[in-house]
Write a structure and sequence with these properties.
Low-confidence stretches: none
CATH topology of the largest domain: Rossmann fold
Radius of gyration: 21 Å
Structural class: alpha/beta
Number of domains: 2
Strand content: 15-25%
Number of helices: 12
Shape: globular
CATH architecture of the largest domain: 3-Layer(aba) Sandwich
Order of helices and strands: EHEEHEHEHHEEHEEHEHEHHHH
Mean pLDDT: 97
Strand order of the largest sheet: 3-2-1-4-5-6-10
Pfam families: Epimerase
Region (Disordered): 110-136, 299-329
Domain NAD-dependent epimerase/dehydratase: 4-224
Protein name: Nucleoside-diphosphate-sugar epimerase
Family: Belongs to the NAD(P)-dependent epimerase/dehydratase family.
């Protein structure tokens, strides 16, 4: 395969994917609406086609113009998007859908591609745009991938867990980096052992390329760091990269209530562990970046950016009330 079409390609996963493809000798075209700044505007190796991926006619026109060997669908959020794309690109050598670890419908440790069932998706959920239906919509997108493979399309799905790294516009990890960078004491909900599997963004990009090149039609592949880190350990990794120390102050629901905070208010906190098995992807030759190296790049990018995670709850003033209560115990 020589020519790749990235649907999306300018913000986060897609941006790193374009870099990954260029490093491996692909000619790359990106297809998007132009709603965000194009980091490849001055790179003559990357061609851009403007259009709305939810408009089938625009997507068909992009297919004719780009003539891709491989298609990477980074912004398919509704099942109908995947159904249309697998039809339009049915003659390509590879179609890879960016799904999600949220597509799983049962809590298991770990969640396995060929064993853990997907979430159900009702017709109403399939067209809903709320966060509550994100997982079901991705699951239905996976089923569209499987159905296309049965028709002879070489279509695959990649399921990342929480993605982090440079250019992360969600600012989820930035919230915690900012806390460690500014405060000696950082409140962590629960006992600090909570695990929400994460995936370094460059590893997600390499996974997408490897699945396109080596994956089997009709298969899904989980992607996540090969070494898990608890939330408390994550703060330690951040502190190491900032060359500082941090006191992790754990707080249960009763203590957090002093600041009108619930444990679930904290970004990257999940009461039940979310862990994805990644052996199937590793079997294709994929490897993950060492976690300290991934954190070093993430922290470095945070310091060079204006991201601080302040859009996420809770605010520091509320935490100070919690710390005050804990100091009296």
């Amino acid at each position: 395969m020589d020519d790749a079409l990235v649907i999306g390609g300018t913000r986060f996963i897609g941006r790193h994917l374009v870099d990954e493809l260029l490093e491996h000798g692909y000619d790359v075209t990106i297809f998007n609406r132009g709603s965000h700044e194009n980091p490849f505007a001055d790179d003559d190796r990357v061609r851009r086609i403007e259009g709305d991926r939810t408009n089938d006619s625009a997507l068909e026109a992009a297919a004719i113009e780009a003539e891709p060997d491989a298609v990477f669908d980074c912004v398919a959020y509704y099942p109908k998007d995947v159904q249309a794309a697998t039809r339009i690109f049915e003659n390509c050598e590879a179609y890879v859908f960016v799904s999600s670890g949220a597509a799983y419908g049962r809590e298991e440790i770990p969640k396995r591609e060929d064993a853990t069932p997907l979430a159900d998706c009702s017709p109403e959920q399939a067209v809903d745009d709320s966060g509550a239906t994100y997982g079901p919509r991705k699951a239905e997108g996976d089923r569209a991938v499987f159905a296309a493979a049965e028709r002879g399309v070489r279509s695959m799905a990649v399921r990342p867990c929480i993605v982090y790294g440079p250019h992360d516009y969600t600012e989820r990890l930035d919230f915690w980096i900012d806390r460690v960078n500014r405060f000696d004491r950082v409140v962590v909900p629960g006992d600090g052992t909570n695990v929400w599997h994460r995936a370094y963004v460059e590893d997600v990009a390499s996974a997408l390329r490897i699945v396109a090149e080596r994956g089997e039609a009709g298969e899904a592949y989980n992607v996540g760091d090969r070494r898990l880190a608890t939330l408390e350990e994550t703060l330690g990794l951040i502190a190491d990269q900032l060359d500082t120390t941090v006191e992790v102050v754990t707080a249960g629901p009763r203590e957090l209530a002093a600041g009108d905070i619930e444990p679930a208010d904290y970004v990257l906190y999940r009461e039940y562990p979310h862990v994805l098995a990644t052996g199937k992807l590793a079997g294709l030759g994929w490897e993950s970046t060492p976690i300290d190296e991934a954190m070093a790049r993430s922290v470095g990018d945070h310091l060079e950016s204006d991201r601080d995670g302040s859009e996420h709850e809770p605010d520091r003033e509320s935490e100070e009330r919690v710390l005050g209560i804990l100091d009296t115990l």
